[in-house]
Amino acid sequence: MSMLGIKTVSERVDLSPVTIWRRMQVGDFPKPVQLTPNRKAWTEKSIQEWEESRPVGQCELPANFNKKHDL
């Protein structure tokens, strides 16, 4: 089983680490597994399944994703 760190995942899905963290908080991105006390990573399979679940041609954020509005 191949494990992917945050840098690899970020580059692969073209999202910043902060955006990945935010999406995990709302359930729109898979959570990593704990490898060691100080290391987390994603399985190749979980990232591939997430990529395949993305709608093609849709650029809207999920309804449960909070956006900050500039005033």
The number of distinct β-strands equals: 3
Q: Termini separation (Å)?
A: 47 Å
Rg over C-alpha atoms, rounded to the nearest angstrom: 13 Å
Compute the number of helices.
Answer: 3
Q: How many domains make up the coordinates?
A: 1
Give the overall average pLDDT.
Answer: 88
State the strand order across the main sheet: 1-3-2
| Uncertain runs | none
**Main sheet properties:** 3 strands, antiparallel
Structure class: alpha+beta
What is the N-to-C order of secondary-structure elements (H for helix, E for strand)? EHHEEH
- Using the alpha-carbon principal axes, give the shape: globular
Overview of the structural elements:
With 71 residues, the protein is of the alpha+beta class. The protein has one domain. It is 38% helix and 15% strand. It contains 3 helices and 3 strands. It has helices at 6-13, 17-25, 44-53; strands at 3-4, 33-36, 39-43. A 3-stranded antiparallel beta sheet has the order 1-3-2. The longest helix is centred in the last third of the chain and has 10 residues, at 44-53. The chain is globular, with a radius of gyration of 13 Å. The N and C termini lie far apart (47 Å).
